[in-house]
Design brief:
The chain has helices at about 1-25, 25-45, 60-110, 115-130, 140-175, 180-210, 220-255, 255-265, 265-280, 285-300. The chain is an all-alpha fold. It has one domain. The radius of gyration is 19 Å and the shape is globular.
């Protein structure tokens, strides 16, 4: 349980760091560089203490990273500037569980019980209540709709990536291999890096074209770059490196029915962070909806 609890706190901090770095650098730039930093950190672990590219299931972990780290986190960084860290964290963390259950049913033939279906509906109801517009909300309607769509895509990526990760661990165990959490996270993030490099390269090409045709090229101030580097490093440490390492460790040693209820608390752990850093005071709908969604994830995990 301890690795899952540590991962939950790190994930909550990662969302705040991701939001701050996004404001300073832009969506895809912040996402790309935190993946690059995390790849070096995880690579140092995997090639010194872990198995590097070994374990016999590198391809499966790589595909999991393309979907989870790549597609899921790309959509997350598009959700953050539109919905903010609190609602973004709620969508991604809570929708990942019902998406995972649905994918396991469609792909692996795992039957969904009536209890699972009901708890899945509870999750959706809670998320929907939290996302409902409130009086005085600072989120424009257009941003809210786009943020919800990107959040759904991110939740799908996270859920699908988790299912493939569990499959990779099962295949490794069947082959007599033992893959540690840090190595699994490294092999997954290589897939994420391959994915995010494409939109980042496209973003840079467009940016250079605009600067070439602009009389005043946009160059970030040195102070902004200095602050951004610290937030990118914090995000890389708390999220895709140390945080995911603890998460992989938890999935390896503890049933997912225990791990997921703990990590599902991340959206609630984000609330005090957003209050301290952003002065974000959630309304009663967000609080009640968040609690309902988290309860739904816990119930879904316990009946899996």
């Amino acid at each position: 349980m301890l690795p899952a609890l540590i991962a939950t706190l790190l994930f909550a901090g990662s969302v705040i760091a991701a939001s701050r770095s996004t404001r300073l650098l832009g969506n895809q730039t912040a996402n790309f560089w935190r993946i690059v930093v995390a790849t070096f950190l995880l690579g140092a672990w995997a090639h010194s203490v872990g198995l590097g590219l070994g374990g016999g299931v590198f391809g499966v972990f790589f595909v999991s990273g393309v979907i989870g780290f790549g597609l899921g986190d790309w959509a997350l960084f598009e959700t953050l500037p539109r919905l903010g860290p609190r609602l973004s964290s709620l969508m991604i963390n809570c929708l990942g569980a019902p998406f995972a259950a649905l994918i396991e049913w469609l792909w692996l033939g795992t039957r969904l019980s009536l209890a699972q279906l009901l708890w899945g509906l509870v999750v959706l109801a809670g998320v929907g209540l939290s996302l409902a517009p409130e009086r005085g909300t600072p989120i424009p309607p257009g941003h809210r709709l786009a943020g919800i769509l990107f959040g759904l895509l991110s939740g799908f990526g996270q859920g699908f990536g988790a299912v493939i990760t569990r499959k990779a661990f099962a295949l490794a165990g069947a082959a007599g291999q033992s893959v540690d959490g840090g190595t699994a996270a490294y092999q997954r993030i290589l897939g994420g890096l391959a994915f995010v490099a494409v939109p980042y390269a496209w973003h840079r090409l467009r940016q250079r074209w605009r600067e070439r045709n602009s009389p005043t090229p946009g160059v970030l101030p040195a102070e902004t770059m200095r602050r951004a580097r610290w937030w990118v490093l914090a995000n890389a440490l708390a999220g895709p490196s140390i945080g995911v390492g603890f998460y992989q460790w938890a999935l390896k040693t503890t049933p997912s029915g225990v791990v997921l209820p703990i990590t599902a608390m991340a959206p609630l752990a984000v609330i005090p962070f957003t209050y301290v850093f952003d002065r974000d005071r959630p309304g009663w709908r967000s609080l009640v909806g968040g609690a309902v969604a988290v309860a739904g994830v816990i119930g879904l995990a316990l009946h899996s």
